[in-house]
Write a structure and sequence with these properties.
The structure is a homodimer of 150-residue chains. By secondary structure, chain A is of the alpha+beta class. Chain A has one domain: Aminopeptidase. In chain A, 32% of the residues lie in helices and 35% in strands. Chain A has five helices and six strands. Chain A has a five-stranded mixed β-sheet with strand order 1-2-3-4-5, with helices on both faces. At the A-B interface, helix 1, helix 2, strand 3, helix 3 and strand 4 of A face helix 1, helix 2, strand 3, helix 3 and strand 4 of B.
Chain lengths: 150, 150
């Protein structure tokens, strides 16, 4: 299998990340893998923000997973810092390999290292497999997630 | 009634913000209004991060509401920036006055001004009044919100 490396994403990783975002029942409708310009601009914004961690999982020089971890300070819960996990994707060839677990465990460990008191994420109501996955990892489905498109 | 001002929070506002966080069925168990030290430290972290906007609503020199808006760049949805609203609170004396709506409208307008494609928030599953409130404002309860305490 080779060693798994979870490291910050670079510009060269963007095509593989966007391909994973698009290879998904929800993502297929909202991504444009043929035009990487907006993604590369977003990577520059992410790289300039020390509280953003866009990561890739790499094995044998191949990008096989990604997630974004955001560190959010705040006043509530006695000034607790929290983290938010977004855009978790595992390459279709790697599903069922435990890579999703390794990615989330990385995010939880990094959140703890950065002094967070809470890790949170939202998952589309239609992704019932993902919900079971997060509950197995100890997450509690305690909230309703609301979105407003602008 | 006097003019409503929604402006960035300052250290002098922290006692009033923490009192609102604590005056809540969920917050009462997890806040410590008698010791402001952790809250003041968190305010310094927030002030140092240009993507964090901890706001207070003030009328006649009195802090009557608060929310935190976080701007999050990202690759998904064609490099869309999103915003997250956290810690929305309205003083008990002001509930039903439309102030909650004004706070959320401020957050939506500011998100639009900063080029966000999406505003998101999570609300505890027990806060059914809040859910109706967000749906009235156009938010869709499309996601499940997961949390893991560290």
């Amino acid at each position: 299998m080779g060693e798994l490396d979870i490291r910050p994403a670079e510009a060269d990783d963007v095509p593989a990340i966007v391909a994973m975002l698009a290879d998904d029942p929800l993502g297929a409708q909202r991504e444009s893998p043929d035009d990487l310009t907006p993604y590369l601009a977003a990577l520059e914004r992410l790289a300039a923000d020390p509280n953003q961690h866009l990561m890739v999982a790499v094995r044998a020089d191949r990008v096989i997973g990604t997630l974004q971890l955001t560190i959010i300070p705040g006043l509530s819960r006695r000034g607790a810092t929290r983290s938010i996990v977004e855009a978790v994707r595992v390459h279709a060839d790697e599903r069922g390999s435990g890579l999703g677990t390794q990615l989330i465990e990385w995010a939880v460990d990094e959140s703890r290292r950065q002094g967070c008191g809470l890790v949170q994420l939202t998952s589309d109501a239609s992704r019932t497999d993902a919900h079971r996955f997060y509950e197995r990892l100890g997450f509690e489905a305690s909230h309703v997630g609301f979105k407003l498109s602008l």
